[in-house]
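Note to self: keep these together.
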Amino acid sequence: MASAFGHAALGATLGKLLLPNQLHRRYWLAAACCAALPDLDALGYKLGVPYASLWGHRGITHSLLAAALVAALGLASRLLSQPDRRPPVGRLALLLFLATASHGLLDAMTTGGLGVAFFSPWDQERYFLGLRPIQVSPIGIKAFFSSQGLRVMASECLWIGVPCLLALALQRLGHRNEADQRPYA
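Structure:
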């Protein structure tokens, strides 16, 4: 798996890209949380859940169905909490889905594990992408703060951090160009 830091960075970046207004910063944080959420299945290790099972690590919580459910629940929660101040519903739903689904995508780009059950529960096959440059993160806080954890962070800086920063820079450049092309009032 990629680390929680890498997942959250991509989720927050998606938030800024899809809902760029500073007023939507809370959604950037929500997207960061959604991006890290599927790894709650790692608790199964302590409970004796087999890795390769439906509920095992990188199983159903990493599926596109789970991403759709998280997006639906997040959107419903938002709409019920402040019905008079509706967010941009389509973009918010897309953001929550993409942020949660991005978790599986990053995990499918790592150098370890059994792959990701993107189509669970209908298809239990686990998949990797052809490009797998991200070092797999050790599981557990103690294991993460080791030499392996440092290699993971370096890998994620290159393969997650740099693309995120480039996307944000391009967005900023695009907004500047839009402002330059507006007629003066």
